Amino acid sequence: MGVLHVGKADSFYLQISNVASDKSISHRCAIFSLLSDKTSVIKNYLQAEDTLCTLDIIKSLGADVKDKDGVLYITPPANIVEPPLILDCGNSGTAMRLLMGFLSSCDGFFVLHGDRYLASRPMKRVAMPLRDIGAKIDGRQNGNLSPICIRGSKLKPFEYKSPIASAQVKSALILAALNAKNDAPSIFSEPELSRDHTERMLKGMGVNIEHKNDKIVIYPNTKPLQPLDITIPSDPSSAFFFAVAAAITPNSRVVLENVLLNKTRIEAYKILQKMGAHVEFVQEENKYESIGRIIVEHAPLKAVEVSENISWLIDELPALSIAFACAQGVSMVKNAKELRVKESDRISAMVKNLNLCGIAAIEREDGYDITGGKFKSFEVDSFGDHRIAMSFAIASIVCGGMVKDTECINTSFPNFTELLSKITQVGAQ
Ligand code: S3P
């Protein structure tokens, strides 16, 4: 049970080049390296609890992982090994859902499990479409909750229209499609584009994936894929906590270096811009992904309504809500029911905590309203959710606060408190 005491911050100018590496891309690097027959070379793999769990999982599946001076060399096994122990996904829905898609067509029996928070998150969004194409998946509540058991089998090609825009669902199905029998293509579509790292990375490895209007057509692999050779940029979702810190603190500015600039991942910065903050994107390279610098400067913020592209904001809405609480007027979040099934129920957690900070916030089934106001010094809980913990650590810089149950920050951003201590006093207990 870690507790963080964070003091009020004065104005700051900060340049950060070591925000934690991208979590989504790190998980994918570990899992996708199993699809090649050669050694993948991964620089800047995220050294955080969740992504280290995923590395342990691929080791249990037979991969050889060597770390030489911080560079990972991942050599896949000739055949996936049937592990004697359960595969621990930690707190990560991404790991569990992507592995469900991948393992469904691997020879053997596999059990996926995680921590108590992950154990309450819905898996049927992946289990049901996979079962429909022949996967043998079971778990508590008829395959909805972990432990999830998988007996690998031959899968059929499919046409699946996902009812939710979820990159985890999309990635699980794309991984399943790669091993579909008859060499026939599969077709996937979703209500709006979710983050597209899977498509980009797999294409780069040689998968035949085509985009036809709103549909993704995936052709099964006929030969092993090319290995990955990648340097993982900083995570824009993690960097965003410091963007909000600068936006809400008068006379402050942050320069976030080497950040992923994929359009499905920087929407929250554009909302900050719409609210009045000065935000600038400077692209510096473009290999698998666009990467560069983001500069954010304080300006008086005004309220905003957010109801579109929610999947592009899903991880940043907690931090963005701290900016809403500091803005002039009532901000509204709509169409965001997915927030209820994240690492915590983020609608309920944000509203409850903001009220404890003296900010008027009301909950609706698919979102919430926040009336900008004056923070009072507070004590709040993280509900075991890393993004709630870091959002309120940032809120504390307005007038001081205390956040309980903050160990979860280590699942995605282990150097968060070290960076926060560059702008204010941080005490850990
Ligand atoms: C992720 C996708 C998102 C996001 C999660 C990471 C990914 O979840 O919230 O933190 O890496 O694919 P959904 O796909 O369920 O929306």
What does this protein look like?
The chain is of the alpha/beta class. It has 2 domains: 3-21 and 233-428, Enolpyruvate transferase domain (UDP-n-acetylglucosamine1-carboxyvinyl-transferase, Chain, Alpha-beta prism); 23-231, UDP-n-acetylglucosamine1-carboxyvinyl-transferase, Chain (Alpha-beta prism), CATH 3.65.10. It contains 13 helices and 24 strands. The strands form 6 sheets. A 4-stranded mixed beta sheet has the order 22-23-1-24. A 4-stranded mixed beta sheet has the order 2-15-17-16. Strands 4-5-3-14 form a 4-stranded mixed beta sheet, covered by helices on one side. It is globular. Bound molecules: shikimate-3-phosphate.
Give me some keywords for this one.
alpha/beta; UDP-n-acetylglucosamine1-carboxyvinyl-transferase, Chain; 2 domains; four-stranded mixed sheet; 13 helices; binds shikimate-3-phosphate
**Gyration radius over CA:** 21 Å
User: What fold name goes in the CATH topology slot of the largest domain?
Assistant: UDP-n-acetylglucosamine1-carboxyvinyl-transferase, Chain
Discrete helix count: 13
- By CATH, the superfamily of the largest domain comes out as Enolpyruvate transferase domain
Bound ligands:
shikimate-3-phosphate
Provide the number of structural domains: 2
CATH class designation of the largest domain = Alpha Beta
Overall body shape: globular
Low-confidence residue ranges: none
CATH architecture of the largest domain: Alpha-beta prism
